Amino acid sequence: MTQPPADAQARRAIPPVICYPTETLPQPDLPLYRAALSGAEVTDTTLAPPRDACSFSVPAGHFFRISSVDGPQVGDLNLWNAHDLTERFYSGKTRALHGTHVTTGDRLWSSFPTLRPLATVVEDSLDWYGIDAFGGSVHDVIGTRCDPYTGNLLSGTQYHHCCHSNLTRALAEARDLPLHEAERHVHDVLNVFMCTGFTRDTGQYFMKASPVRPGDHLTFFAEIDLLGALSACPGGDCSSEHSSDAAACYPLKVEVLTPAAGALGGWQSPQVNGYNRTHGTD
């Protein structure tokens, strides 16, 4: 280890600066969304089987709810613009704007060059969890998704029911795409119900048993027409293993909820980002 300089303590003591102050970030109208949700009816239900994935579609101005059923289970969520798969959930920018974990009032943002809200969290039955003594919290945008490539790299396996492969199959089926083409659109996820953080001593990404129980749910408002895919992770509640056939796994339920006519008043989908995309060439 390098010998610390004489002013090492002073350098460490410099206070941090928030990279993206959000005082000017457009805020969702949560009272409007909640009022519309209170009268909304379930119009479609899909199950992500244990160690597998499902796809679902949500029109703009509708809601979708992910619920735990049968037992504690975490899920990996991908979202796309239903009309353009190149506009998709951008976990990195969502993390930069809202923090490592999302909850009520936070939004899932889309990739460049559109950078607009795809969905807004309206309800989170686990918002009571907060940040625990280990630095863990729920619904993270820091992890990626369990995948066959890392498994092969670390242990030489050919494991096909990890979340990356599950999402690839679900998208391929939903859009009648070859697997290799669908895979290009699978992206870093929202880890729904997963409890994660970073160790204080080594800075390593950790997981721990999720606090989710049957009946817990996370409800979103669809800001644009969405195609979604949800994988019920082969890690179960992620209390011990991260991709295996040994962990206890359970399904996850996705419900689409349609609000009553006129419940959203004059609400409109957000426009794409206003940057002119000239990148200094004018």
List its salient traits:
282 residues; alpha+beta; 7-stranded antiparallel sheet; 6-stranded antiparallel sheet
Largest sheet: 7 strands, antiparallel
What is the beta-strand fraction? 25-35%
SS field, number of helical segments: 6
Average pLDDT, all residues:
96
Query: How far is the first residue's CA from the last residue's CA?
Result: 49 Å
Overall geometric form: globular
SSE string, helices as H and strands as E: HHEEEEEHEEEHHHEEEEE
Number of strand segments:
13
Kindly provide the radius of gyration, computed on alpha-carbon positions and rounded to a whole number of angstroms.
20 Å
Structural class: alpha+beta
Question: Percentage of helical residues?
Answer: 10-25%
Structure description:
It is a single chain. The chain is built from six helices and 13 strands. 17% of the residues lie in helices and 28% in strands. It is α+β, with helices and mostly antiparallel strands. The strands form two sheets. Strands 2, 4, 5, 8, 9, 10 and 12 form a seven-stranded antiparallel beta sheet that branches. The protein has a six-stranded antiparallel beta sheet with strand order 1-13-3-11-7-6.
Entry summary:
The chain has 282 residues and is an alpha+beta fold. The protein has helices at 8-12, 30-38, 91-98, 148-155, 163-175, 179-183; strands at residues 41-48, 53-58, 63-68, 75-81, 84-88, 107-109, 117-124, 137-140, 190-198, 205-208, 217-222, 226-232, 252-258.
